[in-house]
Specification:
Blueprint lengths: L9 E2 L10 E2 L6 H9 L4 H7 L5 H26 L8
Antiparallel strand pairs: 1-2
Helix pairs in contact: 1-3
Length: about 90
Amino acid sequence: MSRLDWRAYVVSDASVLGGRPVVRGTRIAAQEVLDVVDSGAGIEGVLLRFPQLTREAVLAVIQFRLAQQYARDRRHMERRGPMAPGPG
């Protein structure tokens, strides 16, 4: 099984949707895809809403979100410092 790299599918270009991340080769914002996922639709539901996308593109957008969340969480933890008290 090959590894899916979201960077091959999700791109930002200042001339497309003001630089918002989009699915490569489309004007479909990654956030639009994620909104459909957040509404409870599975991959098949997203593909019904955006038939021009592939299954791999949808999975890449989901990976993109996870990568963004990971980076944000990591920055937050680095700002806290090693001796910051944890929850509880």
